[in-house]
Amino acid sequence: MRGKLLIVMGPPGAGKGTQAQRVAERLGLAHVATGDLFREAMVRQTKLGRQAEPYVKRGEYVPDQITLGLVCERLRQPDARAGVILDGFPRTLEQARGLDALLAEMGAAVDRVVYLDVPEEELMGRLTGRWTCRNCQAVYHVLYNPPKQPGVCDACGGELYQRPDDTPEVVRRRLEVYSQQTAPLVDRYRASGVLVRVAGDGSPDEVTRAVLDVLEAGQRAKE
Ligand code: ADP
Ligand code: AMP
Fold first, then answer.
1. pLDDT of residue 12
2. pTM for this entry
């Protein structure tokens, strides 16, 4: 891998997908979102999709070996050579260790982890108001980021839908699983010196500016 390996972390609804898509475009990186990859496999009913489905429906994590296999395959695709922004991965300690091993094999390492910090009380409203494009996975919000025409994606004209795991009940489970299994990773990346915290509760444009600023500052510090 020639380019950077960035990670966007944060609880469900923090804005990982929104920001990762913008940063990927801006910096010319491949946007790799494990949630999107699982949903696509579920629509196509591939073996991976059938394996992932019961976990995704319950708001629980797909087993590490399956998830690591998926990411390993994705990072070996030609477009990943220019650099990658990982969104929603790693989510467990085992996945973080697996990623380090995989990157070491490829002669790469994690460059930066952007942790989007959003007050917990905001997350439920963000997720239950989220609308996602079936075609290009762009995300909207009924109040905070509405599409120009209800139900239609501004970017590609695709149909917008509400994810079945964005119901209050499943969101509660996802937040619980996040705090048990993923929140400890923030400390791990902080200890290794790659973590930068960005306040994720401004407007989407403000958050993008802040993310790009910290990434550029990190780049300058290395030069
Ligand atoms: P994640 O990928 O972390 O689960 P998303 O990027 O899908 O989060 O965002 C979750 C919801 O919150 C979406 O409906 C999105 O439009 C909305 N959203 C994202 N960023 C912001 C923000 N800064 N302020 C308000 N709403 C936001
Ligand atoms: P997301 O689109 O990131 O909200 O992810 C949706 C769902 O996909 C999660 O609730 C999990 O069921 C599954 N998933 C996504 N990424 C991972 C991961 N890194 N490890 C395990 N399960 C994942």
1. 98
2. 0.97
